[in-house]
Amino acid sequence: MTTHITQDNKLKKLIVVGDRILIKPAVPNERTATGLYLPPGVHEKEKVQWGYVMKTGPGYVLPVPAEEDDAWKPQEEKVKYIPLQAKEGDLAIFHVAAATEIQYQGEKYFIVPQSAILMLEREEEL
Question: pTM of the prediction?
Answer without folding.
Answer: 0.73
